[in-house]
Amino acid sequence: MELEYLMGGLLVAIVVGGLLVVGIYNRLVAIRNQVLNAWSQIDVQLKRRHDLIPNLVETVKGYATHERETLETVTKWRNQAVGAQGKGPEQQMAAEQGLSGALSRLMVVVEQYPDLKANQNFLALQEELTSTENKIGFARQFYNDQVMDFNTKIQVFPNNIIAGMFNFKESEFFEIETPAERETPSVKF
After folding, report:
1. Nearest of 139, 140, 58, 174 to residue 106 by alpha carbon
2. Domains of the chain (ranges plus CATH)?
3. Could you give the maximum distance between any two Cα atoms of the chain, in Å?
4. pLDDT tens column, 98-114
């Protein structure tokens, strides 16, 4: 009789342990998928930015013909950013940071051309690019929130045991590495 109780208790412990493992595994998969979804949202906005840049460069070209080097740099970084799509967050983040720096330099060049700043086509493109940059910022923030949640979940006990058994790896944050992007912009009136 005692052996039956012991076997029954052991069976219950195995079932409860199995359910615990399955529950933790399913939660980790769901959170990992949220991270992937958040990255795809960034990717959508980056593609939108990539599509806007050629039009912006062409508009600036008409006014700033001797700024060829800046325009070529923007085009080069845009092509690198497009080429980095689908190669993972790390490579794409590096290319996007280069593109952001090139776009910042382009906007500095634009300041030297009052006629360009008054051009309606340029203003519309600049507004669209600003809106896209804001959406990218929000998407980055959401992605980083998801990464933080995921990384925390795979580091805490007992999740870390299950995460290790099923090879869950930490995700990387989308961080600004370019010093120029970290600087506070100067506003002049």
Report:
1. 58
2. 22-175 (1.20.1440.20)
3. 95
4. 888 888 888 887 777 77
